[in-house]
Amino acid sequence: MSDHLSGEGPDKGSLRNCNVNILLIKNRTTLPGLEDRLRYILSEELLRRGCRITGQGAELLPRHWQGKGGDFNIKGEVTAFQMNVVAEKSDQAVLYEVNIKTRFQVSLPQGDREFSREFTSPFITDFRGGLTVEDTIASRDREIDRVMRDIAIEVIYWMREIKERELREGGEVTVE
Questions:
Q1: How big is the chain by its Cα radius of gyration, in Å?
Q2: pLDDT band at 12 (very low <50, low <70, confident <90, very high)
Q3: Is the pTM of this model over 0.85?
Q4: Cα→Cα distances 102→99, 157, 171, Å
Q5: DSSP 3-state assignment of 69?
Q6: Extended strands (E) in the chain
Q7: DSSP string covering 113-133, please?
């Protein structure tokens, strides 16, 4: 069985061996560091699927994970972050939900076409607060990473759709 995102099998719409140039990830929220976490998790998910990373920060990766040029240029931003109380016990918050909104633009270097799309937390996710503030923050951070990973995977599915559409329409998407 082949994974349509990993590029295994005869699926010519896969992203395996492509070079992804991550241009810029911005954070428009008041919670610092979300852009770095999203860049890291997106890079990790792309690498898992056989892509190579170019652009800012690529020099920090092992050489075999670094690509040259880019089959895709991608930039994005975290546009909203919300953490809401879902349940209380004895006037103390015990269950929270995390909602994150992002916007991405993908362009193909050989053409002047740019694609844009918003992504939100795919599911309403919640986590239990801890006994201490530190426990609650640690739980929140784990949940943010999980939500960011879900969004990164959705972005990769979208990139694959763009590649398949370009191939169907006769556009050239050059991937080794």
A1: 18
A2: very low
A3: no
A4: 10, 15, 27
A5: coil
A6: 19-27, 52-55, 72-89, 92-107, 114-120, 125-128
A7: -EEEEEEE-SS-EEEE--SSH
Query: Is the model more confident about 9 or about 48?
Result: 48
Place of tokens 């943010």: 144
H or E element, residue 38:
helix 34-48
What is the C-alpha to C-alpha distance for residues 34 and 79, in angstroms, rounded to an integer? Answer: 10
pLDDT tens, position by position, 116-160: 999 998 666 667 776 788 888 888 899 999 999 999 999 999 999
Residue 44 CA from chain centroid, whole number? 9
The CA distance from 156 to 160, in Å, is: 6
Helix axis angle for 34-48 and 133-168, nearest 10°, is: 50
Q: Say how many C-beta atoms besides its own lie within 10 A of residue 172's C-beta.
A: 9
Instruction: Read off the tokens for 127.
Output: 């986590």
CB atoms within 10 A of CB 67: 20
Residue 8: pLDDT band with limits 50, 70, 90: very low
